[in-house]
Amino acid sequence: MKGFRRHYHSDRINGSKACDPGDRTQDRKVEAGRRVQLHRSLSKLGLCSRGVAWKLIKERRVLVNGKIMSDPLTWIDMQSDQVTVDNVVSERRKETRVWMMNKPRGLIVARVDERGRPTVYSLFQNQNFVEHASTTMTGDDKDGTSNEPWRFPVGRLDADSEGLLLFTNDGQLSQKLLDPTSGVEKTYIVQLKGVPSDDCLVKLSEGIDLDGKKTLPARFQLVEIFDGGKDGKTKRSRIQVQIHEGRFRQIRRMFQIVGFRVKKLQRVCIGCLTLGELPVGKIRELAKDEIERLMTACKIRDSGGMR
């Protein structure tokens, strides 16, 4: 049976306290978010990884407000403190860049996998995207301060999942996209063994307990019921899931709790961005207007340049 749709969502999605513009706790959170540890600030500035930043600081090559710093865990204010690396003043978000990948199954979202499994960064190399010097640690510029921006994934997709994965050099944009209170919705198409009942979808949409904490309200829509399995007779279903948070293997674990096994999971949308015609395993860099729309969705006012 195809073309069958049932849509379930919680009425509390648009009325949650976190989205209330009058809630002053949000202002306190934003204010506190200006302070980060020094090694993380270099990553957020798009200069290098936190590991390379740690090394630079230990080598006394990083200054804050003209003072040499040797402790990577020093707290700084990214809006008021001036950070200098090798006598070059770092400007916050000098150029925001974002890349979209259609991640295939089987790749690990990490720069290096300790078990030797292939990672998503191999796709950048295969498609002749210039990798940051600190990635390979080769050549003369081994400190991670070359002109090519440091790119890192916005969130994760586990090895068995596929679909839309973003990379950026902008730490603030990444944080906003991952913060549930920003209201940026992520959309997934999930294939299940079996067909969930109405009550099951309602339960999932209202939130269930994961690790002692209830999941936020979400949207679940039954898109299709079809015959699958080796015998071609086992009922399977496709569910569209729209969530704002992204906890560890959240969707798989939610369905497991209500008795269903996820056979396939694909992310198809993040906010205003969709995969479109991007083939599996391919990468493209977002245009300026796409980044602007993404920042608008995250309620970020651009204070720097964009590619």
Quick synopsis:
With 307 residues, this protein is an alpha+beta fold. It contains nine helices and 20 strands.
Write the layout of secondary structure elements.
Blueprint: E1 6-9, H1 24-32, E2 35-37, H2 38-44, H3 50-58, E3 62-64, E4 67-69, E5 75-77, E6 83-85, E7 88-89, E8 95-96, E9 98-103, H4 121-126, H5 133-136, E10 152-153, E11 162-168, H6 171-178, E12 186-193, H7 198-206, E13 209-210, E14 213-214, E15 219-228, E16 234-243, H8 250-257, E17 261-270, E18 273-274, E19 283-285, H9 288-297, E20 305-306
Parallel strand pairs: 8-20, 11-17
Antiparallel strand pairs: 1-15, 2-5, 3-4, 3-6, 6-7, 9-11, 9-19, 10-11, 12-16, 12-17, 13-14, 15-16, 17-18
Describe this structure in words.
This protein has helices at residues 24-32, 38-44, 50-58, 121-126, 133-136, 171-178, 198-206, 250-257, 288-297, and strands at 6-9, 35-37, 62-64, 67-69, 75-77, 83-85, 88-89, 95-96, 98-103, 152-153, 162-168, 186-193, 209-210, 213-214, 219-228, 234-243, 261-270, 273-274, 283-285, 305-306. The protein folds into three domains: 1-32 and 185-270, Alpha-L RNA-binding motif (Alpha-Beta Plaits), CATH 3.30.70; 35-89, RNA-binding S4 domain (Structural Genomics Hypothetical 15.5 Kd Protein In mrcA-pckA Intergenic Region, Chain A, Roll), CATH 3.10.290; 96-182 and 284-307, Pseudouridine synthase I, catalytic domain, N-terminal subdomain (Alpha-Beta Plaits). The strands form five sheets. Strands 1, 9, 10, 11, 12, 15, 16, 17, 18 and 19 form a ten-stranded mixed sheet that branches. Strand 15 (219-228) and strand 16 form a beta hairpin. Helix 2 packs across helix 3. It is of the alpha+beta class and 307 residues long. Residues 98-256 form the Pseudouridine synthase RsuA/RluA-like domain.
